Amino acid sequence: MTTTDTAPIGLAYDDDGSGLPIVFLHGGWLSAESWAGQRERFGDEHRIVVPDLRGHGRTGPSDARRYSVDLMADDLDALLSDLGIEECVLCGLSLGSMVAQSYAARHPDRIQGILLAGAVQTFPPVAMPRAMKRALSPLPMLGSSLAFTGSGATFRSLLSTIRPLTGGPWLARDPEVREAALETVDTMSKSEFKKVFSALYRFEPPALDGLSVPARVVYGEHEVPPVKRQSKELAGALGSDVYKVAGAAHLVNQDSPNGFNRVLSGLLEEVEGGV
């Protein structure tokens, strides 16, 4: 692991291998470790770059009073420029899918292919007028929950509201994957948790019609219906098929590494074959 001091914030990241660069962007409140199965599978043939996003993992907190998805996309641009990566395949899950959308819309010439997993256009994944969304903001209640119970308990409470929609664990069906994710959330400070939540909640999806590259949109069989619906809308915008991975939930790349990796392999073949 090396750390870059690139403005506006130094991102901790792993950069290994050679060949076509693949950049993996993790989900909210998680870390670069969540891509271990993909690094192992693709690391012999490709350059793999896996940052910890602002506020997460080894990167840790920043002095910014407020986070946004666009700010995280700016962080990514600074990192890739520092690494001399002019073009890459971008792969993002959940929050990472939002950062990937923002980055690709701003820098379409730097994208060779894109994969969005557990992908959403809004958070929560239900479109509503901006004024209504502001009025219904859960941030004050979230602040109270964080103050009394902390990051881990607040996250678990959020998960409990989703479970009825899936008939089982939504985050991951594999208990070890789920526990590892929850342990990662436990390590995040209350203030960083709230800044990340706010970035998710305030995200406004960019237009992706200027992006004309090979694309894949992926979700797990046990994903919630609103995420599936928005994933299909994203696939339409990207001219992509939607790939459903059997037996997996939201953390599709960890719940079913083989199923997820097959989809990514197909994308890489298309990118490298120039089809």
UniProtKB/TrEMBL annotation:
GO terms for molecular function: hydrolase activity. Residues 22-261 form the AB hydrolase-1 domain. InterPro entries: AB_hydrolase_1, AB_hydrolase_fold, AB_hydrolase_sf, Epox_hydrolase-like. Gene3D superfamilies: alpha/beta hydrolase. It comes from the Archaea. SUPFAM superfamilies: alpha/beta-Hydrolases (SSF53474). Keywords: Hydrolase. This is Alpha/beta fold hydrolase. The lineage of its organism: Archaea, Methanobacteriati, Methanobacteriota, Stenosarchaea group, Halobacteria.
